[in-house]
Design a protein that fits this description.
It contains 15 helices and eleven strands. It starts with a helix and ends in a 7-residue tail after the last strand. The chain is of the alpha+beta class and 535 residues long. Helix 8 packs parallel to helix 12 and helix 11 packs antiparallel against helix 12. It has three domains: 3-248, no CATH class; 373-409; 410-528, no CATH class. A hairpin with a 2-residue loop joins strand 2 (426-427) and strand 3. The protein has a six-stranded mixed beta sheet with strand order 6-4-5-1-10-11. It has a three-stranded antiparallel beta sheet with strand order 2-3-9, with no helix packed on it. A two-stranded antiparallel sheet has the order 7-8.
Amino acid sequence: MSRARVQDLVRAAADEGLLPAGAEPIAQDIRPWPVMLLTALGAWLAAIPLTIVVGIAIAPNYRETFGFYVIGLLTLAGTVSVLRSKAIPLFFEQLAVPGLIVGGCCLGFALFEDLHWQAGAACVAALAMVVAVLIPRAWLRVLLAAAAATLMAIALVPEAWRGEGVATDFWWAWHGVGLIAGIASVVQHRLAATGSGARIASAIDAMAAGAVLAVLVALSWWSGMAFLVGASFRMNDELGGAAHLQSAQFVIVQAVSAALAAAAATWLARHWPSVRTPWCAGVAAVLVGLSWFMPALGAVLLVLALCAVARRWMLAGAAAVAGAWIVSSFYYGLEWPLATKALVLAGAGALLAALAWFASSRTATHVAAGANGWHRASRPATAGIALTLAAVLAVANVGIWQKEQLARAGGTVFVELAPRDPRSLMQGDYMSLNFRLPMDVSQFDEAAAPRVVLRKDARGIARIERLDDGSPLSTEELPVALSFKDGRWIFVTDAWFFKEGDAQRYASARFGEFKVSSDGRAMLVGMRGANLEPL
């Protein structure tokens, strides 16, 4: 919308008495983003010498916090004064951003040195909020509010970030921050209704948006890695996310998450009459059930509902991405068995598919007769989807049945683990394995599928003797097909997966327990100690 159009709307609202006389629209930044980006790059490069000078000035007395207080307060005061100027060149505006970082870091270091870490985090958070109020730049307010929300969450964790209950404390802390952001949004709406509080409401709105974004990011990170980023970094084991919620508070956390999801559905039904349908109620029930299993999902769904009703589409989109992340991270959650997770996701998918079919059938009964041709044309596509789903399920279940048959009927052999670097033995929730192959198999391509011959002794311990060249085998020999992975041939597998927290249990593993069939198929079913004792 053009600035002239906005001015016309403001004048019309003032004539109707909706706004006070003489009201003016808030100035908007309309500078081209390439110019802002290049100017910011130049300003930040120019700020590097300033940062070095500050570091040299305080380095000799880094144990004394007085200098940090002085430099931090002076830097922040100068930066705020520059940013509050009505006519400020773009270069100096961007140069003030490193000033905020330097001043904030100096004060933060001093406060954390002189106070308890919780009190220090709370003080720095309050300082960030004060600076955000004083600076009339919406994007800086969003960033400062996000930093303040993170520090406030740190301050709300009662103990140091170590221990059994820290994951639950972290969850409660971020939900507390979200509650504060919600209260701020209510205050902002009330102030926006009055002409005199419009500017304050604008500041609160930007800061509430920053806090909400911080909450969404934190809950996504807390949930763990997800399909959306296959090579995602692993979370801190002490914060641990839902995988470490093993205390009695787990049920309370689940109940709160489900209640928040139910509140989101209620809010949407109250403000959008079009969703007051049976199939929408079914979708809401499925999401409430998923929120029970995914403790971070309920708050994200509530944010999504509130932002959608308020037409805050950018925040709603961020909440939708966070929700998709949390749902996909459920696969990696170690607090539930794999079969339970598969049952939950498959059941939720089946219910959603049934609700979609119900909604489409109800809609089809209300369309005009001319749409019947389209409905008939969609039947082959529906049949194709159903057949594809049946084929996928059949293939998956056949593979599961084959594995179960091999585990029951296959012969048991024990293969010694080859020496490996102890520092890479335990990597998260799996053990890296290596079995020595006494021959060169690099000359075989992926389609060759070579096999090796195992010779087992009376105890069942097998040694990899040679490649299978088709010659007759003795009663003590077994053929096993090699597996191709990451561009090389390996013996069956290179990893043993186990529940997180069981690393010590498998640290003494010396043999892999395999089930081998007569046709050369093998499967790793367990790990054994030095004397073949089960682990």
